[in-house]
Amino acid sequence: MPIRNKIGEMVENVRLLERSCGQRKPSVGTLYLSATHTIFVENNPETRKETWVPHSMVSGVERLPPSPTGSQLILRCKDFRVILVLIPQERDCVDIHASLARLSRPEKYSELYCLSFNPNVNKEQREESWAFVDLAADYRRMGVPNNLWVTTAANSEYRVCDTYPSELFVPKSATPAVIVGSSRFRSRGRFPVLSYFHQDTLAAVCRCSQPLSGFSGRCQEDEMMLQAVMKSNPGSDYIYVVDTRPKTVLCASLGKEYSEVMETAMKLVNYLRSSSALQHCLLRAFLNERENLNLTGLREGKMRQKRGAKERKVFRRRVQQRKERRTTPVKSPNTGRLGGTPTGPVFQHASLGCTVLQMLNAMANRAAGKGYENEDHYTNIKLQFIGIENIHVMRSSQQKIVDVGEMRSPSMTDFLFGLENSGWLKHIKAILDAGVFIARAVADEGISVLVHCSDGWDRTAQACSVASLLLDPYYRTIRGLMVLIERDWVSFGHKFSHRYAHLDGDPKEVSPVLDQFLECAWQLSEQFPCAFEFNERFLIAVHSHIYSCQYGTFLGNCEKERRDLRLREHSHSVWPQLWKERSQFTNPLYQTDLSPSQGVLRPNTSPYCFKLWKGLYNHTEKSMPPRQSPADFLSTVREESKQLEEELTNQQEVPPGGTAHHHHNHQPGSRQATHSPDGETNHVGEGGGSTEEEED
Q: Which of 95, 326, 338, 406 has its CA 20 to 30 A from that of 390?
């Protein structure tokens, strides 16, 4: 059956059921397929509800076997929605499935929604949208630059590290030579730079990638760079180096590489001892190599000075025999004649020998690419391993939590087993533990911290941003969280396009790294409900925009790539739009009277303190709005509390012998107005009887 392109066409009498939202009865309507969205419009003239699903939000499309009522498609979305579409004609279902499979996996940036999205703004407004978040202003708010930390031009035009921003802050004592030398010793050239500066203690949170130390390598410039970081904090004579990777896994990996190298080397030695054919091949190569003979001559000269006359005669004879063998044609054992062609067993053995040597070299290179700081070389550090797992473990863990959410009517035992088996909350705890350690070191001990993982753009970003969230109340505001994400994730080269599958690529590169940071923020807001200006809706909105590709903010893998794509000229920033909608994202319990020195959060990271984020993973929770929104109800409670506080203050100010004026002093038998959680007013008479029935 030929596949037709369904873009721009519509299919009528389609039934849609959004299972993840608890919808039980399917809606009937018309399905439209545009270049950027799948659109469903209900036939009901009263509601005409529209469902828009950006193609970038679709993680998978599954076509089920036809049924008597039609052919079914299941759309699984990156925001964890599951949509069932029932199409009357099988041919239409096949065509739509093929079109969606292609549209949800764009191959080029030019196919993404943000490059065709054109809101009603002019060029000047678009440019202003990109200037909405000013990272330079945030560093000035921290008090940087100063006499300890300065900007460097080393990475101008991304010359030293192409995944870092062009403007970086480094210790004042770090020279350009030290910066360049350190970058050469760090994975991807990501040398230590400033992420956050704490003005009260003068301690700093810095970030980088792993050192390429391998088994025993070291770099003087890198050691000087860490010394400069330490000197930038006058109150401490050492720094913490936080390696966010599990120590056991890292050491086991290094140990495995080393054991593999040694095991393969011994196999090669044993093979050379037992294989006359390979010995012959290697001997011939040796005799044809002048450099080896010259080196042999040097060694012979040194040995002559130590040997007696008799030993020198024996040695001369051996050297002469070597020269004679060099000038005598050698018969190849695979042909029995002179100059045998390299097609027989000898060539096979030689190729095997070269392959083994190449394998040895590759494993040595891999071993050299993994490492952590040796405290014998870096005398001014204390190494701390945290234990955050890699992107592959996290990807698998989230899929398990999604599977738990899709279980139909699970028992409590099944649900708890699935939640525990996923390990998801354990990983969230590990990330929060990393942030807690860094925050305590900076705020309580006054010690600077250098954070890294492997390449410094996943686990490092998680740890640094969580620490900033704990340390600084500004980042717990709506605008502050925008700045924090822009700094530690966007500018410092988190691989958005790879991690969130914006383009069709390697599925092993996909991982919910930023999802986990947003969940850490949500977990903290559950423990400290008055410390955050934003609510859960804001975090979910940011999560959706990470995947939707409607705006250019989260596109590309680094600042340089975004500049080369000219995204500021062809797309728009998401932050101004979210700021316009901030009334929906405001937490009514937020308190602004916390100073920076008093605003450090110290969460409890015991396992029992972590919850499943139902608002993100279980859309049923947010598909049934209450009669009064929680924000409105809490705002009402706050206003009433404020009135009661004012009344109490007035009573306390009554002069001796005066009469207090009780504005709400209800006499027995009078009707007192109270507010139910539904926001309805109940009038209670004498004896507590209700004169109006409360609706269910």
A: 406
| Alpha helix (H) residue ranges in 143-219 | 176-185
Our measurement of the distance from residue 548's CA atom to the centroid of its chain's CA atoms, rounded to an integer in Å, reads 17
Separation of alpha carbons 209 and 187, rounded Å: 6
User: Which residue, 670, 610, 231, is CA-closest to 422?
Assistant: 610
* pLDDT tens-digit series, residues 259-297: 555 555 555 555 555 555 555 555 454 444 444 434 434
**Long-range contacts (CB closer than 8 Å, 24 or more residues apart) made by 4-12:** 4/95, 5/95, 5/99, 6/33, 6/92, 6/95, 6/96, 6/99, 7/33, 7/34, 7/35, 7/99, 7/103, 8/33, 8/34, 8/35, 9/33, 11/87, 11/88, 11/89, 11/92, 11/96
* Structure confidence by residue, pLDDT tens digits, 582-617: 999 999 999 886 544 468 999 999 999 999 999 998
Lookup result for tokens 């492997």: 454
Q: Is 219 a catalytic residue?
A: no
Catalytic residue among 453, 464, 520, 558: 453
d(CA 235, CA 237): 7
Using 50, 70 and 90 to split pLDDT, how confident is the model at 311? low
Gap between the Cα atoms of 209 and 393, Å rounded? 20
What is the C-alpha separation between 578 and 660, in angstroms, rounded? Answer: 48
Indicate the angle between helix axes 276-287 and 345-368, nearest 10 degrees: 80
Burial of 400 (0-12, 13-18, 19+ CB in 10 A): middle
Amino acid found at 172: K
Q: Is the peptide bond before 145 cis (omega within 30 degrees of 0)?
A: yes
Rounded CA-CA distance 609/589 in Å is 20
Q: Characterize the bridge pairing of strands 27-33 and 10-18.
A: antiparallel
Number of DSSP helices (H) and strands (E) in the chain, helices first: 24, 16
pLDDT at residue 322, as a whole number: 57
Q: For residue 426, what are its two tokens?
A: 């354990």
Structure tokens at 158: 């991304």
Of 506, 511, 505, 514, nearest to 554 by C-alpha is: 514
User: DSSP states of 349-386 as a string?
Assistant: HHHHHHHHHHHHHHHHHHHHT-----TTT-TTEEEEE-
pTM: 0.76
Tell me the pLDDT band of 215, cut-offs 50, 70 and 90.
low
